[in-house]
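[Meeting: bench + compute handoff]

Bench side (C.D.) handed over the final construct sequence. Compute side (W.E.) agreed to return the predicted structure before the next meeting so the bench team could plan truncations. Sequence as handed over:
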Amino acid sequence: MALSWPVFSGDTQQRPATYSNVCRHAESGDLLGLEVSFVSDADGGYALVQRYEGEAIPPELMQVKRRGDDLVLASGATDAIALRQDGKRMQLTYLDGQLSAAGRPSDTLTPSSPVWQGKNVAVCN
């Protein structure tokens, strides 16, 4: 399993490799939400971002940039997502106009095993 253990951030603190809020729609079985897997600390870091909108959208590798207390995930020259550690959770804010499954510009991700590695997904609230 390539990404199931804690990885080191640039400030040498360990953080879980994956944060997620993916859930399964009770009636349709569709997967909804977002998953962020930190995959490398090279060149400031990289994260694999997997969106679920009924099914998995092709994953995107984003560069991690540190901005004060936030981690900003960038797709090319575009800042797409800001993450801020909040205890064990990550508070996420979309910077690129995306919305959460609930239609909000922000969301909360919790440490998790990745869905693409076989995690059993809970039913959405």
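W.E. noted at the follow-up: The radius of gyration is 14 Å. C.D. will use this when planning the next construct.
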